[in-house]
Amino acid sequence: MSSSPSAPEAKQRPPHRDLRGALRAHLGGMLLSSHAVLLYIFLYLPIVVLVVFSFNDSRFLAKWGGATFRWYGELAGDTQVAYALWNSLFIAVLSTFISTVIGTLAAMAMERYRFHGQLAMDALLYLPIIIPDIAMAIMLLIWFNLSGVGFTPWKVELFGLRLAVPYSVIIGHVSFNISFVAIVVRARLADMDRALEEAAQDLYANSWQTFRRVLLPMMMPGIVAGALLAFTLSMDDFVITFFTSGAGFNTLTVYVFGLVKKGVTPKINAISTLMVVFSLALVGLARLLQKGGEGAPVDVDLF
Amino acid sequence: MSASYAVELVSVTKRFGEVVAVRDMTLRIPDGEFFSLLGPSGCGKTTTLRMIGGFEMPSRGEIFIGGEPQGYRPPYQRPVNTVFQSYALFPHMTVYENVAFGLEMRGVSREDIRRRVAEALDMVRLAGMERRRPSQLSGGQQQRVALARALINRPKVLLLDEPLGALDLKLRKAMQLELKQLQHRVGITFVYVTHDQEEALTMSDRIAVMNHGLVLQVGTAEEIYEHPNCRFVADFIGETNFLHGTIAGRRQGALEVTLDVGGTVLAQAGQDIGRGQPVTLAVRPERVRLSPGLPGGEVNALSGTVEDVVYTGVATTYWVALGQGERLMVRQQNEQIGAGPVAERGEKVTVSWPVDAASVFAQASEAQAQAAPEAGA
Asked: In chain A, count of helices (H) and strands (E)?
């Protein structure tokens, strides 16, 4: 396949040049494919190592001591991990829900209406994506201190576990997730023919019915994709959680960070492996849902 | 306002910021008419349609539908339905759900909806397609779903925004005929927007020719083709030769025009034009007769040289140079096989046309030729 581009010209060329051309094309193809292979190794080798070493029967990270499920077993019985996991899930579900509603409304405002200061608002809406996490985290930290919100916890009981989740973390997660939801939903909206809404109105649907029967169902794949993205980002976040949670509060990422400080054990690998699997499952689900949605699929290739 | 008009626009103006899209437009469309708004893109025809539908509000003036002023009524409170250029079928709904949508919004009972959807789909020959999605239909089928979805609501007026634009030529021709027949059958007033003059001539009872936000002429296909009231209409509808000249006076109830290329011709007096005024004379290529040799003293005869002969099947087109860079296009039907061209390239010929075949427009007044555009139904 790699040498096919030179084939049609073969007749006009002297034999040695033909050979050289074929060789060059062949070499080019080899280089390209090996480049691709290297790239994927670069991207995924660390993950493979992580997964493999999560089954490592040794206290030391870099020394192979045979295969075991010991670390996974240890995780299952670890209440600290359970707390951290439920904290993470609680924050992710809540912040995803809030940011999906706000982000969707923001996307509609930007895409379907014209108002004063829209350009500035538009730029500001996407700022949280551009500015570094650490800057945002510090901003939030200062703001929570100044405003008096502080790290007041929200006390809930979930599956027999007493959680105390600081409002500040949830607010922090909402604040960066809105932008991602808005971008994804807006892309979907921009692809939609405005005549569809006019057609609904032409067929006696008032504004609410138009939204409910036409706009919302058509935006749905975008909304779901945005929500899944927000959920993943929330689960994966460390920096903003760390800065806005105060002392002694653990999400999964914060807990792993704490473990690393005490010394790395394969237990961390086990947690990380589970997180990778979970994230992949979410991304797969998002893809699946998008395919199920009508019309053009939404592009969520932000990564 | 009389209720026998389906649609009535009274001094309607639409501005978008500084741009005037429609200027002081007055139109009366009687019940049951197939009425076309014809003009080049940007002439204001779509804006006019959108104002009738309620998607744009007039900056000034009033629109009446069935004799009722519409004011600022939103689209969902107007007794009209629209077939959109892009069809705008709801992609997440089946054909059945699309067609039923309007009735459902108006709270019609499930039983009635089922019956009327079946009727509507029958009417557009799409029975059995209920469960399909719009994406599973061909362009022509989508077009017919859009029609059914609009007509099922029995609107007073159906608005159609270049609905055949996306179809290929053959399908378009077939749909033109189908639409025309459908309109006869349902008896609903159609307001049809198109930039395709042939389409407008084929389908319409009456046509309004628009340019730059103005209605230039309203009339039947024959009226606007045979008696255009300004140069733009003559140029936009069909093919026309333009010759320049000056009014020399009146003779036998016609205007006498001295042409710039030499010679004097007689023409219909569409407008009152004073002596000495520069004018443009328009004459259709198929009205011109071509004969070999020099003029023998007949009226409206000029001499020229054949520059080009083009055989196009139905007709043969001759390009005749009249001098001073002016050329005349002459089209003669090929009625007999093997008759061959009347004249060869380079041959001296005489071109002539009947007095009533030519229209005359004052050159200066062309811009304001639309002073009184509407003569009523």
From this structure: 13, 2
